[in-house]
Amino acid sequence: MLYSLYKRFFINCLPDRRKKNCTATIYLYSPMKLLRKIVIGLVILILITGTGIFFWLNSFKPDVNTELQLKGLKNTVEVLYDDYGVPHIYAQNEEDLFYAFGYVHAQDRLFQMELMRRLADGRLAELFGKDAVGSDKFFRTLGFRKHAKWTIDSLITKNPDAPFVKASKAYIKGINAYIEKGKMPLEFSLAGIPATPFTLEDSYIISGYMGFTFAEAFRSESIATYIYNKYGNTYLADVWSQWPKGEPTISVQSKDSATKVAAHLASMANQLATIETKAPFPPYHGSNGWVLSGNKTKSGKPILSNDTHIAFSQPSVWYEAHLECAGFKFYGNFLAGTPLAALGHSQYGGWGLTMFENDDVDFFREKANPQNPNQVWYKDHWEDLKIYEETIKVKGEADVKLSVKSSRHGILMNDSFDKMADQKDPIAMWWVFNQFPSHLLEVFYDMAHARNAAEASKAVSTLTAPGLNFMWADTEGNIAWWAAAKLPKRPATVNPMLILDGSTGNDDPIGWYDFSQNPQILNPARGVLYTANNQPDDMGTGLVPGYYVPGDRAKRIEQLLFTDKKDWTPEELRKVINDVTSPSYKGLLKDIIPIIFAEELSPLAKKSIEKLIPWDGSHDLEDIEPTIFYRFLYHIFVNTVKDELGNEVFQTFEHNVNFKRNMIALIKKEDSPWWDNVLTKERETRRQVLTKSLNEAAASLEKQLGTNIEKWQWKKVHTLTHKHPLGILPVVGNFFNVGPFPVPGGRETINNLDFPIDSTGIYEVSYGPALRRIVDFASPKTGTSVLPTGQSGNIMSKHYKDQALLFAEGGSRAELMNKSAIEKVQTGKILFKP
From CA 726, how far away is CA 712, in angstroms rounded? Predict the structure, then answer.
């Protein structure tokens, strides 16, 4: 009966050879035969669809084996691609060289360039709608395009024949040639992005974004003011001191209304953290770098090591290229949309970067005129604010109008953040970046052409902002470090980490230090110099105020490098750059474990403490201790500072550099007022809080990972995913992302794979080394490096993620500069002809 329900009749007319007519043949199919036909049909349909999608996606992939004509090119340019997709460009003159580079850079990274300029210019809402308005309002207020126009009027228009100007313009010309001739990236189609030409202004606004992400004051000074106004200096000093006593420094040559305002300002830091998290281009965070002189190396020449710490994204932040023409041979790392390398080396010398971390931003609370909202008080009179209008276009919505106001102290920030808009007291942002035209592109051009330490010193001396540590090595044997930035002189009474008074004039900067007074050193006797974003020593004018990170990495670098070893090799330094041990955590646990109430611990908490007692601070994949430690740390934070700060401020405070820098000192301080919970009647002690926190940590880990403590390995909770801006899309989003990968390392280990600590117990890496690069100047043509994912931004390219596993496992590959070696691994060749 069931069978008869599935009967199907198919009549097939077949020719009868004898009767010349058709006979009806009835075919009866079973349900299984029918199902088989349906499955086969679906498979064929899927294969056809999949093949179509594959060929459609491949249609966006650029051709790296071709010949092209470029209008205005003077001579033929040859581009060879190696086995990791790095372009090696050979030209007869610099303008052709940078013209071709602009083309190939756009070919691999045009979508990244486009989002970078839109983010910095406050034009994301044109693509992504109202959700991007908050970001656009903030960056429009910062006014990077106005600053770029000022820079071009000051430096470019007046010096059109300057070599860096010609190189920069040629690069922009190359980007636009690709937009005209090349294939637009897949993301342009998916996001509906119009293809529009680039200008030199775009390169400068991208440089402006770089400067903003280096300015930690945006995230910190509002929180410091909130703590100071609400709880006083006793509370603030325990979590916000300039540099903890005993931490390693870099050697050099010889109340109520105010509290409410501060609370709203603290919300600015939280909103800013949200903007950065959602931004399609990551902020910069820190870095490691060191140089060993020839008397410390096996080759007898200096070795340079650098790993820049930047939030991870896909494509990778850095783009590598090797450029050669008469008199210029250079291998560099470039940011999207910028013509000159921020890192690199030639046959003569090279440099690495870390963030200086100097405080180059001050916030001023202005006194508003109650009769005129467009005036503020200064000393003895009302001053008019400068005002201009911005229009933010929003996809699918009405335009948003924004009035940007500024006082003598800088741009007023109130209208950029939701919870500050109603504050009657304007908050002005004074920023070194806005006081001068940007010399950044000129600095990087001159560094790429520097042949020795003297020329490099002259090049970095003109940098105003952002503050950068330049580490230099050359084939002459010199090693050097300069903390480059324009450093302001502030009144002795001013604490630049608090909101200042703009009405009296007493808190205003009073001048500038000469570059000769910046922290720096040339050829130190020890034969080693390093920076890990830690505090430089005093150059005789006082310590430079700044947002220097904890000394953990600095301690470990000194442990490993400040030895009598005199035969270092690049391979041995590769082990150092991948080191995952923090010496600070061992010392902290040694101090606090003995005071915990052992009799009040749960059985699992006791097992946890038994694991932590012998821990050396290592963060390897199989280690259990870091899983316990960071969970313990989170509960300490919650039970110590959250009651004073509240949920919103706590979210930002936990990963603030000042708190991270002072966290260990706070936990070791028995009489700190932070131990008491202000929401309870009893007075809690450090011992009680630590005991409670360890019990809570063990209970939460049991719930998350089970009762078997041996299965709490670090690899289960510490992972790295490189997220693409379109990775948020449903279904197809994961197609663009790369990862996740279980990774070693942790907070402030040399291999600094950092993360926010929250209630989840999952530590998704937010930032870390954006490359790991080592160059021995005995053989500058054979450096080594690795990118987090790959060179290409094209999802169908084999170089989209071909370095991802290599990076996660601490490996490296060659930075080739020898043409014969390049030709042996060549995977593509483009000839650009006039």
Answer: 33
Instruction: Report how far residue 804's alpha carbon sits from residue 789's, in angstroms, rounded to the nearest whole number.
Output: 4
Secondary structure percentages of the chain, helix, strand, coil, to 5: 40, 20, 35
In angstroms, rounded to a whole number, what is the distance separating the alpha carbons of residues 293 and 297?
A: 7
Q: How far apart are CA 435 and CA 132, in angstroms?
A: 28
564 contact partners, CB below 8 Å, separation of at least 6? none
Is 754 labelled a binding residue? no
Q: Tell me, letter by letter, the H, E, C secondary structure of 526-570.
A: CCEEEECCCCECCCCCCCCCECCCCCHHHHHHHHHHCCCCCCECH
pLDDT confidence band for 113 (50 / 70 / 90): very high
CB 309 within 8 A of CB 769: yes
- Asked if residue 62 belongs to a known ligand binding site, the reply is no
Residue type (1 letter), 531: T
> What does the block give as tokens for 317?
């932040």
Which DSSP helix (H) or strand (E) runs through 820?
helix 819-824
Phi–psi pair at 484, nearest 5 degrees: -95, 125
Distance CA 661, CA 534 (A): 10
Q: Pick from 816, 788, 334: which is nearest to 827 by CA?
A: 816
pLDDT digits (tens, 9 = 90+) for 427-442: 899 999 999 999 999 9
Residue 548 pLDDT grade (very low, low, confident, very high; cuts 50, 70, 90): confident
Out of 96-105, 215-224, 352-361, 408-417, least confident range: 215-224
- What does the buried/exposed string (b/e) look like for 429-458 if buried means 16 or more CB atoms within 10 Å of the residue's CB? bbbbbbebbbbbbbbbbbbbbbebbebbbe
293 annotated active-site: no
Q: From the candidates 220, 222, 287, 766, give the one annotated as an active-site residue.
A: 287
User: Is the separation of the CB atoms in 737 and 723 below 8 Å?
Assistant: yes
Question: How large is the average pLDDT for residues 255-284?
Answer: 54
DSSP 435: G
Letter string b/e over residues 182-212, b meaning 16 or more CB atoms within 10 A of that residue's CB:
bebbbbbeebebeeeebbbbbbbbbbbbbbb
pLDDT digits over 304-351, tens only?
999 999 889 899 999 999 999 999 999 999 999 999 999 999 999 999
Q: In the beta sheet, which residues pair with residue 87?
A: 81
- β-strand partners of 471: 352, 481
The residue whose two tokens read 């902020």 is 283
Question: Nearest-CA neighbor of 790 among 108, 183, 332, 104?
Answer: 108
User: What's the sign of the alpha-carbon dihedral 482, 485, 486, 492?
Assistant: negative
For residues 333 and 771, the answer to whether their CB atoms sit within 8 Å is yes
Nearest to 738 by CA among 713, 718, 719, 754: 719
Distance from C-alpha of 95 to C-alpha of 832, rounded to nearest angstrom: 13
**One-letter amino acid of 507:** D
Query: Is 496 among the annotated ligand-binding positions?
Result: yes
pLDDT-based confidence at residue 6 (cuts at 50, 70, 90): very low
Q: Where are the domains of the chain?
A: 2-58, 583-616+624-712
Is residue 290 within 8 Å of residue 314, measured between CB atoms? no
First and final CA of the chain: distance in angstroms? 80
The answer to whether the annotation marks 161 as part of a ligand binding site is no
Q: Report d(CA 91, CA 94) in Å as an integer.
A: 7
Q: What angle do CA 261, 262, 264 make, to 5 degrees?
A: 65
Encode burial over 231-259: b for 16+ CB neighbours within 10 A, e otherwise: beeebbebbbebbbeebbbbbbeeeeebb
Distance CA 20, CA 754 (A): 83
**Which tokens sit at 179?**
């937009």
Calpha distance 566→298 (Å, rounded): 7
Burial of 755 from C-beta contacts in 10 A (0-12 / 13-18 / 19+): buried
359 is in an annotated binding site: yes
